[in-house]
Amino acid sequence: MIKTKKRLMILSAFIALTVCACGTAIREENDMETNNSSEEIIATSDNTGEVNKEVNDDLSSFAAGIKTEDEESNSDTEFVLNDEIEERCPAIYETKRADVSYGEFTHDTYYSETCQMERGYSILLPADYSVDKKYPVLYLLHGIFGDEYSFSNDGSNKIKEITGNMAADGLIEETIVVCPNMFATSDPEQKPGFDSISVLPYDNFINDLVNDLMPHIEGKYSVLTGRENTYLAGFSMGGRETIFITLKRPELFGYVCAISAAPGIVPTKDSFMSHEGQISESEMRFEDGATEPDVFIICCGTRDSVVGTYPKQYHELLEANGAEHIWYEINGADHDNNAIKSGLFNLFKQIANGKNMSNAENGGLQ
Ligand code: FER
Prior knowledge:
Layout: H1 2-28, H2 37-43, H3 53-64, H4 91-94, E1 105-112, E2 117-124, E3 137-141, H5 159-168, E4 176-180, H6 200-203, H7 205-220, E5 230-235, H8 237-248, E6 255-259, E7 268-269, E8 274-275, E9 295-301, H9 310-320, E10 326-330, H10 337-361
Parallel strand pairs: 3-4, 3-5, 5-6, 6-9, 9-10
Antiparallel strand pairs: 1-2, 2-4, 7-8
The structure holds 3-(4-hydroxy-3-methoxyphenyl)-2-propenoic acid.
């Protein structure tokens, strides 16, 4: 009896240490090649993608960013609308204001023909949402092991504040944010993991988004449609799918931002797994004659301990293949909310600037 208890204690200590080690490794390692955090992860997951529950809890930090202590913002109190990128989200946009009403996330479901099942999404409607108005929509995609709650359950990403404050200042229109579950599988038992079978449902999300979720949102809510009013952004695994979806269906999204995009769009091998690649390097481009997004941002923290320099490689491939985009790095940011806040803010800033410019061309603000 005592022996069993002791064994149990040793086992729990081992699990706790493994979980701790994972987190620390992710926080401390910078270099993709020396990042060994995957060894702990792979040791607790098998090739079917089954992941040990304790470790999965820890891995949930992949889904919406690692929690870092030093969350920083740009403390400028003045904001000038132009086409320049600001590495950090200004404090005035991520801080709650007493005189602004913010929307709240709620949860809903839709039937997915792609997955042959009812699927959930979280949705942030503006505080004074009314069917008498029509709103643009941002589809925001979570990271690996995430779901439709990954962003809505994490107040540190400041999605509500950034969206609400920028709309309150008249920079962007009041905007609906939809956070889907990006794991588009038709097998309710299938789980995500770091192997080629277990990531397939993420690559299938393009079908669920375009054929099921977007028609559902456009049918159920009072939304502005068309590419100028349809935005796409994603973090990590969601950033990877954001780039993939944008290259495949560029006519659908006017404004796009891929934050800290995960590897695997093109063939590669990182410390987590071997990636067959969704497309080849020469296909990292828009098809000839395609309607391209007005703004296509790719960004990443300079200290990203999970995806390392993969986003930069995407930028280099797109550049070599002549696909127009904006690339920038967030100095000092990890795979975390500093990167997410920055990407979201800059996407909205580019939308504000882009829409102002086209309004000006059409005879001024409308
Ligand atoms: C990988 C490295 C990182 C990978 C996925 C990720 C599927 C995703 C990380 C995240 O979403 O936070 O090799 O392969």
